[in-house]
Amino acid sequence: MTTQAIEPRMELEQNLHMYRQMAKIRAFEEQVHELYKSAKMPGLAHLYIGEEGVAVGVCEALRRDDFITSTHRGHGHCLAKGASVNRMFAELLGKEPGYCRGKGGSMHIADPETGNLGANAIVGGSAGIATGAALSAKMRGSGQVAACFFGDGALGQGVLYEAMNMAALWKLPVVYVCENNLYGEYTPCGETIAGEVLARARAFGIHAESVDGQDVQLVYATMRRLVDRARRGEGPAFLECKTYRYYGHHVGDVNREYRTREEEREWMTGHDPLETLASRLTAEGLADASVFERIVTDVKEEIDGGVQYALAAPYPEPSEVDEDVYA
Amino acid sequence: MSTPEVAVRELTYGEAVREALAEEMRRDPRVFLIGEDVAEAGHPFKVLTGLVQEFGTDRVIDTPISEPGYAGIGVGAAMTGMRPVVDVMFGDFITLAMDQIVNQAAKVHYMSGGKLKVPIVFRTTLGATRRSAAQHSQSLQAWPSHIPGLKVALPSGPYEAKGLMKTAIRDDSPVVIFEDKMMYRVKGPVPAEDYTIPFGVADIKRAGTDVTIVATSSMVTVALGAAKMLEEIGISAEVIDPRTTYPLDKRALIESAKKTSRAIVVDEGYERYGVTAEIASVIAEGAFYHLDAPVKRIGAMDVPVPFSPVLEDLTVPSEKTVFETAKALCGKA
Question: Strand order in B60-62's β-sheet?
Fold first, then answer.
């Protein structure tokens, strides 16, 4: 770890907001899991549970008009950037009011109003898009920054390094956020990543740091610095967030033969992002259990309402199938 | 005929491309060029010479040799308010950028329910017989033509090179435009004023009554040469250039075939599963009851493009093969 943990203490309000965002993502994903198990959701989903601190810490450091690109495990990114629960669920169920009018589904949610340029089901597929958005921001003088989310699996994709090379050459305002959850699909990253992750970014002269992704305050504070320097024209950065996905690669990956139950327990009990933040604020005497319980209850209500909304929402009309192929 | 009557000068195909780019960059500050050797070098075929002097390196951007990277950067820029023209030096290299073109650019608008747009142009080349062997000589226009979400333009001369490029740049959807690298020095009339050529509108290059020759890009010249030879033996050939493979002017192609009752489709891409197959099928279906013979296809031979001139020349459709095919089709073999 290269990041110093000494940052000015953030306001309680912001901390509680981040807790709420994380709780919302967790409750959303738990509901997605239920929808899958009860066969109400077509297809599959890749749950973000366990990684909430990354999306929330990163997006909290961004302006609403800053860009993100997301991944197949992207629900958390979308929600953290400001997507509505109702329209997210509607999209997951293939319904008309969904973010993509039912044409994208779980892996392609895009919401330009919140700067979300879309989730991408090609691993590493959005490295170019995020970097291009940063080039565009620079050309237009808009002051926007782009955050490119990808997993450790994308470290195997050449396009990421091509994009990083150009971002460094042209000092583009982009932050590459590597969510290292230790597994690329079903394979431990130790089998797929040679050398040091940060050294790859540093080879291009890109400022690189690694943080505990389960500590949302640390993710936020670090990302804030990286975003500020990018916005000042000081060039791209690379942020590795060490994290863990509590569930399998996708909802259907239930046996998880490639890792041990002990490892899972250790992350869930000792490194949970919501627990970490709640216990810290409690220890500091800034909040007590009732505050967090109330947030969880509120959020659950929002999630329940969102599911009901989506279940009741209409499907797209058949006539829409060939709409929007061309602009 | 599409050639207008006023203010016509002769420009080379390469100059016509350059003029289109320069005019569009002057007209719209969102338009910029990005790719390998596009700035000071002005592209290996010198098509872009002078653009960096006028527009600077902020809008004429040299990249590393990283086709997927800069293609993706183009897509991201297009999604966020810019209108990039991405230069892929050789058509063979689009294979490297295929994920960005096919999985990203082509699908973003649809996948986002119509909210995001990708106004991007990928300009690249086609054409063999430059003695460049198998990785610099292919005509891969069938690949993007297969993909919903992409438009594909194939300018057959200087006039088309300017007009189609301008239309491509103004289009809100991704367009792949294949320039015939063997035609860059070919001259033809090109209006000095602003004009565009609509996509999906075929152009009858030569009217005729006995046989329709549908020809794309480089093959239009070949078809016109064959038509001249056919005329000498009393066969009147109509040569029609679809100009875009998508959108495709099916109606014009079918109408022409109905009129002549015979059709040949010529394209420089591999014949197998190629542009000729799609167009022949469109004509066979649409003009079936009017046809006196099966629709014939002439594409490049289904071999990797060989280096040796004696071999390479055998692989591409020639005036002679088109002539012989038409002659046989008209029962004069």
Answer: B60-62, B31-35, B83-87, B121-126, B175-180, B151-153, B244-246
Q: What ipTM, to 2 d.p.? A: 0.94
Q: Look at residue A13 and tell me whether its pLDDT is greater than 60.
A: yes
If residue B267 lies in a helix (H) or strand (E), which one and from where to where?
strand B263-270
Closest CA to B97 of A134, A158, A204: A158
This prediction has a pTM of 0.95
Q: Is A172 in contact with A160 (CB distance < 8 Å)?
A: no
Residue-wise pLDDT for A79-121, tens only, equals 999 999 999 999 999 999 999 999 999 999 999 999 999 999 9
pLDDT at B4 over 80: no
Are A159 and B79 in contact (CB < 8 Å)? Answer: no
* pLDDT for A2: 42
Cβ distance of B70 and A166 shorter than 8 Å:
yes
Nearest CA in chain B to A100: B113
Contacts 24+ apart (CB under 8 A), A3-11: A3/A209, A3/A210, A3/A211, A3/A218, A3/A222, A5/A218, A7/A217, A7/A218, A7/A221, A10/A217, A10/A220, A10/A221
- Which CATH entry fits the domain spanning B203-329: 3.40.50.920, 2.40.110.10, 3.40.50.150, 3.40.50.720? 3.40.50.920
- Name the percent of chain A lying above pLDDT 90: 96
What are the boundaries of each domain within chain B?
A: 10-191, 203-329
Q: Which residues pair with A179 in a beta bridge?
A: A151, A241
pLDDT confidence of residue A5:
47
Q: Please state whether beta strands B83-87 and B60-62 pair in parallel, antiparallel, or not at all (unpaired).
A: unpaired
Pick the CATH number of B10-191 from 3.40.50.970, 3.40.1190.10, 3.50.50.60, 3.40.50.300: 3.40.50.970
Test mutation, A136, A150, A204, A322, chain B, max B CBs within 10 A: A136
Chain A residues near residue B32 by CB distance under 8 angstroms: 139
Is B43 a catalytic site residue? no
pLDDT tens for B248-287 read 999 999 999 999 999 999 999 999 999 999 999 999 999 9
Tokens of B326: 């038409």
